[in-house]
């Protein structure tokens, strides 16, 4: 089953990356910022978007303006992630929220990422609330293949809506 799931996930990644090249969508995250988990958070792990990912620049700036400590992932040699702050901030390692990238999310909170497993390893080590950012149309009723190491998210956000999942990891 794992090799079948791995192959299917690889095929889906190719398809979803190609579909993203033609998207032009606003990056309004006010509804996500208004979520109680974000409002109550002190430390939020986010990411710096690149390529065709939903834009996080305004989101990260607003979170910082609101007084949240925003940490970002840095890839280690072993492809694991470590969260880092800017030079003048202190971070004790405890996260309240993790904002993660995704190519697609299914209705059970399963996330299809880029395929390296880096976020799955990082998510396994935290009890923080997890929300994946996707474009409208990338939240699907089609089930995403799951491997044993895959970590679910608690919610997903598009530029229009925030969807919470009842199936928690």
| Order of strands in the sheet with most strands | 3-2-1-4-7-9-10
Helix proportion: 25-40%
The counted number of beta strands is 10
Structural class label: alpha/beta
Q: Helix count, per DSSP?
A: 5
Shape: globular
Element pattern in H and E: HHHEHEEEEEHEEEE
> Can you say what the CATH homologous superfamily is?
NagB/RpiA/CoA transferase-like
The CATH architecture classification is 3-Layer(aba) Sandwich
Distance between the termini: 21 Å
CATH class categorisation? Alpha Beta
Count up the domains.
Answer: 1
Low-confidence stretches: none
Radius of gyration: 15 Å
Main beta sheet, described?
7 strands, mixed
Strand content: 15-25%
CATH topology-level name: Rossmann fold
> Would you tell me the overall average pLDDT?
90
Q: If you had to describe this structure to a student in words, what would you say it looks like?
A:
This protein has 169 residues and is α/β, with parallel strands linked by helices. The protein has one domain (2-164): 3-Layer(aba) Sandwich (Rossmann fold). Helices cover 26% and strands 22% of the residues. Strand 5 and strand 6 form a beta hairpin. It starts with a helix and ends in a 5-residue tail after the last strand.
């Amino acid at each position: 089953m794992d090799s079948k799931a791995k192959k299917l996930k690889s095929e889906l990644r190719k398809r979803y990356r190609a579909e993203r090249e033609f998207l032009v969508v606003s990056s309004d995250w006010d509804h996500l910022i208004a979520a109680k988990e974000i409002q109550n958070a002190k430390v939020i792990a986010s990411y710096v978007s690149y390529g065709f990912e939903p834009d996080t620049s305004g989101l990260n700036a607003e979170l910082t303006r609101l007084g949240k400590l925003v940490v970002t992932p840095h890839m280690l040699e072993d492809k694991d992630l470590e969260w880092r702050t800017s030079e003048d901030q202190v971070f004790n390692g405890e996260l309240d929220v993790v904002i993660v990238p995704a190519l697609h999310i299914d209705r059970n909170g399963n996330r299809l990422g880029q395929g390296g497993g880096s976020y799955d390893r990082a998510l396994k080590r935290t009890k923080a609330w997890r929300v994946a950012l996707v474009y409208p149309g990338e939240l699907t009723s089609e089930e995403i293949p799951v491997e044993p190491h895959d970590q679910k998210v608690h919610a997903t956000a598009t530029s229009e809506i925030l969807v919470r999942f009842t199936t928690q990891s």
